[in-house]
Amino acid sequence: MKIIFNVSIVILFLQTLSLSASEVVATVNGEEITQKDVNEFVVTSIPGASFSKLTESEKKSVVNKMIERKLFVKDAEKIHIEENPAFIKELKKLKENLMLNYWMKQKVEEIEIDDKEAKAYYKRNFKKFIRAESVKVRHILVATNSEALAIILQLKKEKIELKKKFIEFAKKKSTGPSSVNGGELDWFVKEQMVPEFSNAAFALKEGTITEKPVKTQFGYHIIYLEKRRKKGSVPFEKVKKEIVKSLRLVQFKTKLEKLSEKLKKTAKISVK
Q1: Around Cβ 249, how many Cβ atoms within 10 Å?
Q2: 148 and 222: one domain?
């Protein structure tokens, strides 16, 4: 079934990877869809993905889904869904949860943690901040050894733009979920991956690929090593925010318990 509607789409955004957050990429009956809206939609729909890393057809699909969403919302408004008793009940719950989330966030951020307190925590828990050797890689996953070998041979021809070509191949040929991100994986230590994959990744030099396909239970991988982090302690300044957040949460828990007791004393409570 086709949905017919009057809509104007700005398609220039498909020809660039960097647009301002406020740039309008489409309008639906006069209502704008901005680059920020699109980015947020992709991030929430595909964890770890970003709009700029999608293929042209994927970008078009995302915008089309957002256009449809606008149209469906308008259709829901026409039949006065917001007046449905069940809708009103659910909306009340959502509002309460949102209020609590913002209230707790505000209360946590009000708690002040000075450098002295944060540094003391860092010293007491120094072992927590010793970082194991880790790597950041991209990979291409295919079903057969011959497919992997063919890709490796093509990539070997690239001397200057190996990374760029690898990303292109990952998007087009990889069967893994990371293909939308050009095969990009998050930082990992050796123990986090299956031995075959980890051993091959950690044996690479930065900016190089595996000479042979790496076989695992998932298929055949070609791995590209982007960066390597050596084992060592993480400086205080790099983990300061994490420490402050942790200390705030500890103090907030104590304050929350006291506030709960205080509010209960002045409230009329009846338990059945």
Answers
A1: 12
A2: yes
- Are 146 and 221 in the same domain? yes
Q: Are strands 130-131 and 232-233 parallel, antiparallel or unpaired?
A: antiparallel
The reply to whether 166 and 227 lie within a common domain is: yes
Contact of 71 with 3, CB cutoff 8 Å: yes
| Angstrom distance (rounded) from CA 130 to CA 136 | 18
Q: Which ranges of the chain have pLDDT less than 50?
A: 1-19
Task: Please give the tally of structural domains in the chain.
Answer: 3
Q: Which domain holds residue 178?
A: 131-232
Residue range 207-234, pLDDT digits in tens: 999 999 999 999 999 999 999 999 999 8
Phi–psi pair at 177, nearest 5 degrees: -65, -20
Q: Scanning the structure block, which residue is given the tokens 């007491």?
A: 124
Helix (H) or strand (E) holding 124: helix 115-124
